[in-house]
Amino acid sequence: MRKLMTALLALVCVTAYSQKTDKKLETQINEIIKGFNGDVGVYVHDLKHNKIVAINADTVFPTASIVKIPILLGIMRKIQDGELKYHQRVVYKDSLYYSEGDDILSNFKEGSQIELSKVMMLMLTISDNCASLWLQGLSGSGTRINQILDSMGLKSTRVNSRTPGREQNRSVYGWGQTSPREIAWVMEQIVNGRVFTKEASDKMLRLLSRQYWDEEAISQIPAGVFVADKNGAVDASRNEILYVNGKKAPYILSIFTKNNKDNSWEPTNEAWVMTRKISALVWKYLNE
């Protein structure tokens, strides 16, 4: 695994060196985010032309539920190593109960069984937090997931919750942390079949394409286009990372916010409105 990740990092260095900034798109995105009441980070990678837009792309932001991508890596590593099986049945225990939110798994009874694959689906598709905590535990620990992230060369992306030694980070960033550029890179490696194995990457990509929460960035993409996505939201932070397989130009887009003044949960939330505008702009700019 270490040799594979070293090779990946070398490839990333070569690719990054050849990337050019799309100045026109950058200007248009800056117009949208101008005056936003909070901090914004945006990263766009036009995969066809290898052009990027990076606005505060290396700033660290709370992940909110986007931490579920690192947890996905952790559980998929266990499956790849043969320690778990994708379709094996696992047993729910009351100690897994998570009181916040409207989780499906938290309504299970002690001793109920469910396939591991369905727990993964619930974590990614409806962002079930009980499923996330369960899978983090089955992955070994937050520490083990962070070791995987470190082996991939990631510096900002980490799991903080229930991870010894990261209590201070959790107080600042919550369950997890990342940067717009790093999480976009992770998504791109999955798209290109470079995380663990091609088979594992393809499985993760399909899981990420089954998104229930599709009313923000995804809503601006035509329904017939393949999209893999994960979003996350807490009061003062609204984020989204997506891969869009546009016929003219496939692309990766990540939008992160923090310290948001608007903490509302209506569709008119300032960060969500901005997310929809940026997503619509990038789609039209690259594919219409």
Automatic annotation (TrEMBL):
Gene3D superfamilies: DD-peptidase/beta-lactamase superfamily. Pfam families: Beta-lactamase2 (PF13354). GO terms for molecular function: hydrolase activity. It catalyses: a beta-lactam + H2O = a substituted beta-amino acid. Residues 41-257 form the Beta-lactamase class A catalytic domain. Keywords: Hydrolase. Belongs to the class-A beta-lactamase family. This is beta-lactamase. The lineage of its organism: Bacteria, Pseudomonadati, Bacteroidota, Chitinophagia, Chitinophagales.
